[in-house]
Amino acid sequence: MRTRFHLYCPDVEFSPMTPCPDTDHYRELFLKDVPLMDMRAPVEFNKGAFPCSENIPLLDDKQREAVGTCYKKKGQDAAIELGWQLATPDIREQRIRAWQHFIQRHPQGYLYCFRGGLRSRLSQQLVTEAGTPYPLIKGGYKAMRRFLIDELEQNCESMPLTLVSGRTGSGKTLVIHELVHALDLEGLANHRGSAFGRQLQPQPSQIDFENSLSIAVMKQLDKHSQPVFAEDEGRMIGGVNLPMSFINRMQQAPLAVLETPIAERIDIVLADYITGAYPQYTAQFGEEEGAQKFSEQILGNLSRIRKRLGGVRFTQLHGQFSDALGQLINHNNADGFRPGIQLLLTDYYDPMYDYQQGKRDGRVVFRGNRVAFIEWAKTWTQEVHSMV
């Protein structure tokens, strides 16, 4: 079956003899989620990559280090010769087989290395000689990374951003998911943004987060000129930092405040942090180990805010959560968490939010519940769009 390209050569039908040309059209690559084959070593890939990339390296970490040292001491020719020595026929065959599998799955993709130089061209040569030519990205990872940094800075200067604000548990993330023109910052960061916000799977690296954020903003602005909604966050979401360009834009953005009754907020927190999270632990680790790890996670999160809670409140909450964990694990009943959640909301999170929000009341353009919020967002979108 022949597959038609849609990116840069729309009139060329794919076959092993007619690949797309090499490209430096970075915007189209990211907007269209084009599959990317990353030829860098795993240590480079783990430091930073792109959402649609897959690491199938030319050299492993030790080989890359050896070739890099040789390049510095003896020059490019000697480094190339060492690379061929390290890449024995068996290793080359394994690499080519892995690359061809990727090409078969993603005939519309591209390959790249760090600078679009030696490694990507050698890899391209090998797959071409094997009968499956594949285009590369000019400038490689370094140029694409630079493009995303510059693009985010430029987009943040003009992005019509509106922040979804509200007390903890008010359902801000639920609203973000209902809005068409919205950035899910916590989704990109894989963290809920509070002391209890750590997810089972690790957060992305700082570079991965920045790359994903830049692409998400680019996609939003490519679709429309209407306001983009994002949750009101601090400078950090878990262990990753929002870029300064985005923080500066947030500090100027209007605020839409979501107001939710305390009973509903308790339900939302319970669903997000307890009944929705606990099954993930038991599914991954098994019943006994999953229960233990989940308990350690909840009580460990509580311990991290011990100083701010004060000794009396911490002891009270620790006892409530410990008992509630026992009820959850032994009787599949999560209601025991409700008193502790309410205490955390009213005595810890709400005072902090109210203090900070009091400094920004002049930027508030809406207050209301979730239903009213969604209806208002449509009007706000129309009003802003009519002014563009």
Q: What's the number of extended β-strand segments?
A: 10
The number of helical segments is: 18
Strand order of the largest sheet: 5-6-4-9-10
* H-E order: HEHEHHHEHHEHEHHEEEHEHHHHHHEH
Amino- and carboxy-terminal Cα gap: 46 Å
Compute the CA-based radius of gyration.
25 Å
What count of structural domains? 2
Q: Mean pLDDT, rounded to whole units?
A: 90
Strand content: 5-15%
Q: Helix/strand/pairing class, anyone?
A: alpha/beta
Shape: globular
Helical residues, percent: 55-70%
Q: Flag low-confidence runs.
A: 1-17
What summary fits the major beta sheet? 5 strands, parallel
Q: What can you see in these coordinates?
A:
By secondary structure, the chain is an alpha/beta fold. It folds into two domains: 26-143, Rhodanese-like domain (Oxidized Rhodanese, domain 1, 3-Layer(aba) Sandwich), CATH 3.40.250.10; 159-387, no CATH class. It contains 18 helices and ten strands. The protein has helices spanning 26-31, 42-47, 61-74, 76-86, 89-105, 118-129, 140-158, 172-178, 185-189, 206-223, 244-250, 262-275, 278-285, 287-304, 306-309, 311-331, 338-358, 370-387; strands at residues 36-38, 53-55, 110-112, 161-165, 182-183, 228-231, 236-237, 240-241, 255-258, 364-368. A five-stranded parallel beta sheet has the order 5-6-4-9-10, sandwiched between helices. A three-stranded parallel beta sheet has the order 2-1-3, with helices on one face. Helix 7 (140-158) runs parallel beside helix 11 (244-250). The longest helix is centred in the C-terminal third of the chain and has 21 residues, at 311-331. The two termini are 46 Å apart. 32% of the residues are buried.
